[in-house]
């Protein structure tokens, strides 16, 4: 039973056949898995998106996100799911969930254009009793100060005529363990009744619902989660730089520290941060704090450190080549993995692009291998794709591992690479193919020969 159905007085006055339990506005990596879970729970779901390509593809059972296969979409269609570009479907919705992108503006501040556009579309069709939930990540106050006034242009009052809530998305693309159903759902309502309505709705298909005092607390919870990761990644990235100078094996130190059963969580260095959250979300919080007249120094420093990691990768690459008597400007460099995380196709904010840009600027001849990306451009220029992995590694003067896809096994890398810079610590992990899966300290494996380095 959904939130509106739990209170008959709040159900829109529409013919029963016209009512949808849920309209998901925005069918990307957040909205589509949400719709799929709701469909599997027996809800009647409509997906609304501005892209004809996305909508036509879904109605033809073609998935465009990593976490759902085309077979999954086909099962959704069999259970009554439909996708549309027509916002008129909003008038027949008991619950509307906004899952649109919230990128950064060119100036580095929040770009809420998609959110405000969605809110205006909803306002044009909003019915009494509807539950509206914002899931798009944003700064504290957005639901109440930005979305609410736009929805109330309908003539209806939030908290009195319709319910309004915020529930941060917690999608982790490529995570085979945690999905929509078994990841606790944080919910904050504009009023107590709004929060209860949203909690009842998500209770249809999410195992655990966590209530906050209001929308601002739920908005802040999401930013706190990602700022925590952002700052801790920056910490180990900076430590990686000076540990190299000090002759300290940071990976070994992390492995040792991680044996402490309390008070420590392991984070690992890398070529930078990427994806839909870490490079973006902390800046939303920093923006809001600046409106109070304060700098958010932790976030600003973390951003500075993580943003300079591609340059550090280039520095290490040059040093590795120089030690072998080669110049970067006359070298063939192979990039392994150009997505922002392992075993998915998502390239958003991937550090591979600034690394490639800097290598090209220094005259390196680039190629890439990625099993999930068939073509790749940097500043409008196509980078040649290698399809034979072993041959590509063997022919490159230098191989830089940027994304730890499953097929980049330590044994394979060490066997074929002339020179290798591993920015993800793959060479410090047990290699199942080499029979080392039982090694207790994950990070203590070391490269077996010269010319192979870990960041």
Automatic annotation (TrEMBL):
Q: Which residues form a coiled coil?
A: none
Q: Tell me the SMART domains matching this sequence.
A: UDPG_MGDP_dh_C (SM00984)
What name does this protein carry?
Answer: Nucleotide sugar dehydrogenase
At the top level, the lineage of the source is Bacteria
Q: Any keyword Zinc? A: no
Taxonomy of the source species: Bacteria, Bacillati, Actinomycetota, Actinomycetes, Streptosporangiales
State the species of origin.
Nocardiopsis tropica
- Sorted alphabetically, which keywords does the UniProt record give? NAD, Oxidoreductase
What sequence ranges are listed for the domain UDP-glucose/GDP-mannose dehydrogenase C-terminal? 334-429
Q: Give positions of region: Disordered.
A: 430-455
| Stated family | Belongs to the UDP-glucose/GDP-mannose dehydrogenase family.
> Which one Pfam family would you cite for this protein?
UDPG_MGDP_dh_N
């Amino acid at each position: 039973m959904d939130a509106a159905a739990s209170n008959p007085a709040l159900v829109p006055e529409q013919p029963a056949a016209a009512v949808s339990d849920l309209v998901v506005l925005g069918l990307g990596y957040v909205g589509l898995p949400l719709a799929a879970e709701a469909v599997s729970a027996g809800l009647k779901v409509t997906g609304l998106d501005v892209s004809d390509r996305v909508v036509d593809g879904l109605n033809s059972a073609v998935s465009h996100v990593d976490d759902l296969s085309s077979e999954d979409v086909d099962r959704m269609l069999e259970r009554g799911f439909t996708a549309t570009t027509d916002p008129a479907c909003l008038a027949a919705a008991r619950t509307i969930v906004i899952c649109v992108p919230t990128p950064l503006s060119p100036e580095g501040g929040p770009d809420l254009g998609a959110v405000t556009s969605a809110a205006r579309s909803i306002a044009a069709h909003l019915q009494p009793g509807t539950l509206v939930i914002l899931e798009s990540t944003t700064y504290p106050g957005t639901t109440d100060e930005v979305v609410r006034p736009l929805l109330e242009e309908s003539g209806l009052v939030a908290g009195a005529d319709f319910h309004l809530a915020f529930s941060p998305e917690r999608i982790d693309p490529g995570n085979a363990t945690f999905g929509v159903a078994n990841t606790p759902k944080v919910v904050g309502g504009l009023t107590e009744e709004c929060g209860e309505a949203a909690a009842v709705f998500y209770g249809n298909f999410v195992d655990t619902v966590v209530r906050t005092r209001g929308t601002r607390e739920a908005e802040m919870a999401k930013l706190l989660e990602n700022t925590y990761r952002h700052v801790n990644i920056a910490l180990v990235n900076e430590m990686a730089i000076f540990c190299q100078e000090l002759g300290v094996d940071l990976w070994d130190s992390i492995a040792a520290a991680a044996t402490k059963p309390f008070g420590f969580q392991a984070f690992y260095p890398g070529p930078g941060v990427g994806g839909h959250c870490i490079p973006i979300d902390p800046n939303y919080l920093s923006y809001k704090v600046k409106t109070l007249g304060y700098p958010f120094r932790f976030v600003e420093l973390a951003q500075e450190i993580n943003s300079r990691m591609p340059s550090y990768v280039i520095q290490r690459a040059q040093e590795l080549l120089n030690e072998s008597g080669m110049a970067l400007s006359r070298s063939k460099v192979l990039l392994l993995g150009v997505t922002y995380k392992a075993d998915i196709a998502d390239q958003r904010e991937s550090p591979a692009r600034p690394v490639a840009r800097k290598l090209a600027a220094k005259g390196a001849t680039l190629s890439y291998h990625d099993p999930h990306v068939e073509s790749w451009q940097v500043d409008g220029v196509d980078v040649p794709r290698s399809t034979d992995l072993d041959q590509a590694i063997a022919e490159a003067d230098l191989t830089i591992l940027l994304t730890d896809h499953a097929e980049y096994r330590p044994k394979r890398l060490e066997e074929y690479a002339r020179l290798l810079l591993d920015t993800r610590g793959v060479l410090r992990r047990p290699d199942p193919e080499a029979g080392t899966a039982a090694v207790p300290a994950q990070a203590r494996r070391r490269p077996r020969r010269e010319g192979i380095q870990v960041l």
